[in-house]
Amino acid sequence: MNELEENKFDLKLFRHQPDAETLNAQQEEIIRLKKEKNAVILCHNYQIEPIQQVADYVGDSLGLARQAAETEAEIIVFCGVHFMAETAKILNPTKTVLLPDIDAGCSLSDSCPAPQLADYKKKFPDTYVVAYVNCSADVKALSDVICTSGNAVQIVNNVPENREILFVPDQNLGQWVMGQTNRKMKLWPGSCYAHVLFTKESIERCRLEHPGAPVVAHPECVESVRDLSDEVCSTEKMVHYCKSNPSEKFIILTETGMMHRLTRELPDKSFIAGPTGNCACNDCRFMKMNTLSKLANCLETGGPEIIMDDKIIDQARVPIERMLDWS
Ligand code: 13P
Ligand code: SF4
Q: What's the CA gap between 215 and 229, in Å, rounded?
């Protein structure tokens, strides 16, 4: 297990323990079932550590979408949230896609209901819609291209210059992309309830406690937090940044599951889970709905399964494939 130490500001300090990969009986059973059923376990960086340990692939939304597009397994068990499992289904309509907890949603995805986007498009029919992958399949079906935090800059740079862009649903990622690309966009007023909890004050306090530790933030954080960070990037790029930076300690501003991935890949470095405004509560309640028991149950019973309308699958696949072509 990773050691979790509390310091005087109630921050969580993660250090890798050499026995971290020891598997328990339930994990061994999951691995056995996975082989028996020809299933692949795709796992987002925010999942709990015991799930990350049994996964075939752990990564960010972009990496997971790529893996989903390439897998030859008959069953995809998606350890993440609903929109991610939907993306896997859209890319593999004939395969069975399972999500251990079917209610694992996303506040950001919920902030952009498809009927509202459809109304906007009626009013402004020439708008080019760039949708962050954290949105429903219905919203994807209304969009021109999808992006993730890992490729958003590249995707926006590819949009024809004469088109006015509406970026949905994350205003913080959209605002950051505008700064990186110098491209004006209309921003949908959505946000991630977990990432907006980091504040400038809480991070400045943390910096005083850990002088010299680079601050690495997810672009879903608010502007004042991004501005004081040394690096702003997707969860996957955080691993690369921390690997290539000579510092031994980093302050990480994203969901806490990321710490497991970082401590596993970089056992000689340590990571501070950045504090939020009033507490250290940067867990995504949706990501944490999946558990080892639900994962085992999912493999045993073949459910809960992602079921989607064929027409939505066909419409939503177009902008996702465009993204995969462009990045
Ligand atoms: P990444 O694509 O960077 O992994 O982010 C996904 C997400 O849901 C962030 O909150
Ligand atoms: Fe959605 Fe935020 Fe959770 Fe990511 S961290 S899945 S954006 S609620």
A: 5
Instruction: Establish whether residue 192 lines the binding site of ligand 1, counting it when its CB lies within 6 angstroms of any ligand atom.
Output: yes
Whole-number Å distance between alpha carbons of 164 and 169:
16
3-state secondary structure 194-225: CHHHCCHHHHHHHHHHCCCCCEEECCCCCHHH
Give residue 211 CA to ligand 2 midpoint distance, Å.
29
pTM: 0.93
Give mean pLDDT, residues 283-297. 97
- pLDDT, one tens digit per residue, over 135-163 is 999 999 999 999 999 999 999 999 999 99
| Per-residue pLDDT, 67 | 93
How far is the centre of ligand 1, averaged over its atoms, from the C-alpha of 162 (Å)? 29
Q: Which residues pair with 251 in a beta bridge?
A: 215, 272
Residue whose CB lies within 8 A of the most ligand 2 atoms, among 134, 234, 282, for a mutation test? 134
In this structure, are residues 91 and 319 in contact, taking their beta carbons and an 8 Å threshold? no
Rounded Cα–Cα distance for residues 261 and 240 (Å): 12
What are the residues facing 270 on neighbouring strands? 249
Average pLDDT over residues 227-238: 97
Q: Has residue 280 got a pLDDT over 80?
A: no
Which uninterrupted H or E stretch holds 42? strand 39-44
